[in-house]
Design a protein that fits this description.
The complex is a heterodimer of chains A (about 500) and B (about 550). Chain A has about 500 residues and is mainly beta. In chain A, strands 13-17-16-15-14 form a 5-stranded mixed β-sheet, with no helix packed on it. By secondary structure, chain B is an alpha/beta fold. Helix content of chain B is about 60%, strand content about 10%. Chain B has an 8-stranded mixed β-sheet with strand order 3-2-1-4-7-6-8-5, sandwiched between helices. In chain B, α1 packs across α19, α2 crosses α5 and α14 runs antiparallel to α15. Chain B starts with 11 loop residues before the first helix and ends with a helix. Classes of the chains: A mainly beta (about 500), B alpha/beta (about 550). At the A-B interface, α1, β1 and β7 of A face α2 and α17 of B.
Chain lengths: ~500, ~550
């Protein structure tokens, strides 16, 4: 057939001519640019939202498909992204597109315009005492031990706890210390004028207490549970670190080092001495090693000796760097970190949450360029303890001040690198979720009524609170598809476990 | 050069080389599949780029083939109403035929004009030849129908149809080549059909092929060869010159169109090098089309289209299924291979080697209709079809023999040897690998890029590019679906609109079908050959649910 060969030549030529463009397009090169003789590499963005099927607008241009979707062949640089879905508040963020890469935005949580409210119980409660113990929430109907109620988050049922305690159930509760993910907790109570420390274990619908006062002779100030072992608690007494094992009823002191605070990071414990030098200790071998000394003057430190994730009462914030090491920052003068309640690591930046009426502060620590690695080189522990680590530059701090509406932060948590802050104030509970890169912030208000405090459950996506007008406990759904967060929480737990294994 | 087109060509190094060549297709096919899989796991970005290049080449090739399919279909349509006998009679006097054609070209409808132009080209080509073409009156047809275990209802309709041929059936000698190991009933049936129809033909023979002849395998080629030798004896006895005899070897279920023998005779007469040519009709599988399962229909329509497309390139055309050739050539090359399973294509390669590359396949724009592989149940039909396809794929056994022949025969131009060798190897490797690559492996690189936590653009661009290309490929499938509608036979006694529409949707089954009845049997056959596990000849079962119309007419 006569046309066969010319036809073959035409198609072969088409293949040879078009294929380089296809490959270039696949690698992210701008086809228009190539046609003009310029090899410019583009990038893209992938957006997934909760709930899905939201309209996605990029730089003012609505995309034809709905989330989850990817848009490629985008010029590099900053683009404005907006998600919209009927019945939900718009979601806006700036997205940085890098050459040859697709920026993943898979944490877009769309918040409903209206919040449904559902009462948990028909009777009024004195206060929401929202402490998670395993899959349960502990509610307090009054100040006494017998006023404890248990709420099953998954089953959405509430019962008065069957309290079995070695003290009278009329004992008044002073403080509670729970462990994330564990059904055990410590309770400090006052019974017949005497201070007692009880260890509680929830076995629905019973809460069994045993007396561990002997192990905690001093007032409980932020004791920390071991992330690996629900039987072990770390605490300080007169500035000295103790490891307490509940099962064997033993308290092991570590070598004397007057601490102003400490924090657990994986299998390490980091502590600050009175000069604000940072030390670390491996609980297994119990030898302190000096990690950091600081350039900046550290003055005006209040005499408080506890630390959780940060150092309440001091102007020093401890935070965990993206590579899992502990760093510290001396904040700007305008930033008082006296009420720091937590921090999140959202690579490459760090977010720290603090509180100062009437503002809430979200401070972002920016690692110094060049010598961002902590000065804790390898070597034996003995040599490290003898020769202090070199001084290092402090991270800079970027702060964002948010009107708090007169409320107080009740809870903060970090999901997938995103800092969420839940706080109450006035007649509403407010939920904040800054973006994961720490540069842009999206805020929304959960228009729930009343509540003196609130609790968010990642498993159900609900915020639990006490309705101010009725005094009844209630919940509202703030995340439309909490199932996705269950996976994220599990991921965080896995991550915590992996970090702890290092 | 002395070369025997058979297995086991020698000993020592020759044997080792042949053995190595037997392994080459399987090695290449497995290397392509496993290599891409490993690349996908360890270098998914590179794998993605390779996949894009491959799918694009497939798309380009598919669009190209579709154009050729369309052209071929138009040519088939143009020859649909051709009166081949009229042309044969006119070609008795080439000069007046040429003048008449030249005059009559103007003012004709498109299809007729196209057909006449083609005819005119062939007449002019014949006029340039020094020798006069033979008269159609001198041409005799030898039709060999191998029968292994087929029932009368399978092979009788073809005989009945031959009597309705526009070419005088008095010029046709039919030989039933019955396997000696076939049951008595099969032999009785063959004799009964012979008795019923012999007066319609020049002669009708039933040749029993003895079982267990030394040097022969239990293959169709051995049976057909036995019958062809009987045919040669018949020619000698009746003084018929071999160069005027066209031999056609049909499957037992083959039903030729009424124009088949007149078209074949025309092509034979019109072919200047007719003694060194095979004549390949378009096989269509329509005898039991509406009784067969959907997958079998799609498979066989696909085979038909593939043959239609290939018919546009005689240089690359290889004999397939039912076909015809010069009896003189068949006798000269020593008949069909008697130990190879894939006699359809082997006879071409045997002739190609024998004549040092001077052997062609002439495409015939006429159809022969056969049965789809079918059995009494759906599952048995699946098994039946798989085995049939594996037998076809076993044609790869010709590859080492052809390459060995090419290595020895320096009279075939080097370029032709390289081209044919590569084409043969590429055909078998792509047969075994493409279905897997296109259906499964093209989609793997992107997830593997994601698994590696890479945010490369390729992860998102590759699926997008592939989707676009596969969407474009749908154009090809739509064309195939539309053309298949034109090809479909009418369903007797029942309204057929619904089934026809359903048949369009059946094209959605192409991806799984291509793996189960394309890549898998081909890979199976190649791997068996690489491990030296020979495939026995297995006669495809072709059961029919309805009684054939021809039986009642007989």
């Amino acid at each position: 057939m006569r046309i066969r060969k010319p036809l073959f030549a035409v198609f072969a030529l088409l293949y040879v001519l078009i294929l380089p463009f296809l490959i270039s397009y696949a690698l992210g090169y701008d086809l228009v640019g190539i046609a003009r003789g310029r090899f410019v590499r583009t990038g893209g963005v992938f957006v997934a939202s909760t709930p899905p099927r939201a309209r996605f607008t990029l730089d003012g241009k609505e995309q034809p498909r709905r989330t989850p979707l990817s848009v490629i062949s985008l010029p590099t640089g900053i683009h404005s992204a907006r998600l919209e879905l009927d019945g939900f508040r718009p979601w806006v963020r700036s997205v940085r597109v890098r050459p040859g890469e697709v920026t993943i935005v898979d944490d877009a949580l769309l918040i409903p315009e209206k919040w449904p409210q559902r009462f948990i119980a028909t009777t009024a409660f004195a206060d929401l005492w929202p402490e998670a113990v395993g899959p349960y929430l502990l509610f307090r109907k009054g100040p006494r031990l017998r006023d404890l109620w248990l709420y099953d988050v998954r089953g959405d049922t509430i019962v008065r706890a069957n309290v079995q305690a070695p003290v009278t159930t009329a004992a008044s509760i002073q403080s509670i210390h729970t462990q994330f993910g564990s059904a055990s907790f410590l309770l400090e109570v006052s019974a017949a004028g005497a201070r007692r420390v009880l260890r509680g274990r929830v076995q629905w619908p019973t809460v069994r207490f045993d007396d561990v006062t002997r192990l905690f002779p001093a007032p409980l100030v932020s004791p920390q549970w071991s992330p690996q072992d629900s039987d072990t608690i770390y605490t300080t007494r007169k500035g000295r670190l103790y490891q307490v094992r509940l099962s064997t009823r033993t308290a092991r002191p570590y070598p004397a080092r007057l601490l102003s605070g400490f924090t657990l990071e994986g299998r390490q414990i980091y502590g600050l001495d009175q000069r604000m030098n940072l030390w670390k200790i491996d609980p297994a071998d119990g030898e302190w090693q000096e990690v950091h000394t600081w350039d900046a003057p550290l003055t005006g430190l209040p005499d408080r000796t506890s630390a959780t994730l940060s150092l309440p009462g001091s102007d020093l914030i401890l935070a965990k760097s993206a590579n899992g090491e502990l760093v510290a920052a001396w904040p700007e003068a305008s930033f008082r970190a006296s009420d720091v309640i937590g921090f999140g690591s959202s690579s490459p930046l760090l977010s720290v949450l603090a509180w100062q009426k009437p503002w809430m502060v979200v401070a972002t620590l920016v690692e110094p360029q060049g010598d961002a690695q902590p000065a804790a080189p390898g070597g034996t522990q003995a040599s490290q303890s003898k020769s202090p680590a070199p001084k290092r530059a402090l991270p800079t701090v970027k702060t964002e001040w948010i009107p708090s509406r007169g409320g107080e932060i009740s809870q903060a948590w970090f999901v997938y690198g995103v800092t969420h802050v839940l706080y109450h104030g006035g007649d509403q509970v407010t939920l904040h979720a800054p973006s994961h890169d720490g540069q842009d912030f999206n805020y929304w208000v959960a228009n729930v009524r009343g509540g003196t405090s609130a609790w968010y459950s990642g498993e159900t996506g609900r915020v639990y609170y006490i309705d101010r007008t009725t005094g009844k406990p209630a919940w509202t759904q703030v995340v439309a598809q909490p199932q996705s967060l269950v996976g994220l929480i599990q991921e965080i737990r896995d991550f915590a476990g992996a970090t702890g294994g290092q | 050069m002395s070369f025997t087109f058979t297995r086991g060509l020698g000993t020592g190094e020759v044997s080792r080389l042949e053995r190595f060549l037997e392994c080459v297709p399987a090695i290449l096919s497995w290397t392509v599949i496993v290599g891409l899989l490993l690349l996908t796991v360890f270098q998914p970005v590179i794998a993605a780029l390779l996949v894009i290049a491959f799918v694009f080449s497939w798309l380009v090739r598919m669009l190209y083939s579709n154009i050729l399919l369309g052209v071929s279909f138009v040519r088939l349509r143009a020859e649909r109403d051709t009166d081949w006998m009229k042309r044969l009679r006119a070609m008795e006097d080439l000069e007046s035929c040429e003048r008449s054609l030249t005059r009559s070209l103007h003012g004709k409808p498109f299809y007729e004009r196209m057909s006449l132009k083609s005819h005119l080209r062939e007449v002019r080509a014949l006029m340039r030849e020094p020798a006069q073409p033979p008269s159609w009156k001198a041409i005799r047809h030898l039709v060999i129908i191998p029968i292994a275990r087929e029932g009368r209802e399978i092979f009788e309709p073809g005989i009945a149809q031959m009597t309705r041929s526009r070419f005088p059936s008095e010029h046709i000698v039919v030989i039933f080549a019955v396997e000696g190991r076939a049951g008595d009933e099969v032999k009785r049936n063959a004799q009964a059909v012979r008795r019923a129809w012999r007066r319609k033909f020049l002669d009708f023979l039933v040749v029993i092929h003895p079982d267990g002849v030394p040097g022969e395998a239990r293959v169709k080629g051995a049976n057909a060869t036995c019958a062809a030798k009987a045919g040669a004896a018949w020619c000698a006895k009746h003084g018929v010159a071999l160069e005027n005899v066209i031999v056609s070897c049909f499957d037992a279920d083959t039903v030729v169109s009424p124009d088949y023998f007149s078209c074949l005779t025309y092509q034979f007469v019109a072919c200047p090098d007719r003694a060194r040519a095979s004549f390949q009709p378009i096989p269509v599988y329509q005898n039991n089309f509406w009784e067969a399962p959907a997958f079998a229909r799609i498979l066989d329509v696909g085979s038909t289209f593939s043959q239609l497309t290939q018919s546009t390139d005689p240089a690359a055309l290889v004999t397939f299924s039912s076909h015809s050739m010069s009896f003189k050539a068949l006798v000269e090359i020593g008949y069909w291979p008697v130990d190879l399973i894939s006699d359809d294509s082997s006879i071409y390669w045997k002739a190609y080697v024998h004549y040092h590359g001077r052997y062609t396949v002439v495409p015939m724009l006429v159809t022969v209709s056969m049965d789809l592989a079918q059995d009494v149940s759906w599952w048995k039909t699946v098994s039946n079809t798989y085995r049939q396809r594996r037998r076809w794929a076993w044609g790869v056994e010709g590859f080492p023999i052809v390459v060995m022949a090419f290595l020895r025969d320096h009279l075939i131009p080097l370029g032709a040897r390289l081209k044919q060798g590569f084409r043969l190897l590429q055909a078998h490797v792509s047969w075994a690998t493409w279905p897997f690559l296109l259906t499964i492996m093209t989609w793997l690189p992107a997830p593997f890029i994601a698994l590696g936590r890479s945010h490369s653009v390729v992860r998102y661009s590759e699926p997008r590019i592939l989707s676009t290309m596969f969407n474009l490929a749908i154009v090809g499938f739509i064309l195939s679906a539309v053309l298949s509608q034109i090809f479909l036979p009418r369903q007797k006694g029942k309204p057929h609109i619904g089934k026809r529409l359903l048949h369009v949707l059946e094209w959605l089954l192409v991806p799984p079908i291509s793996i189960v009845f394309g890549g898998l049997p081909a890979l199976d056959a190649q791997t068996r050959m690489a491990f030296g596990k020979r495939l026995g000849f297995w006669v495809t079962r072709k059961a029919r649910k309805r009684k054939p119309a021809a039986r009642s007419q007989a």
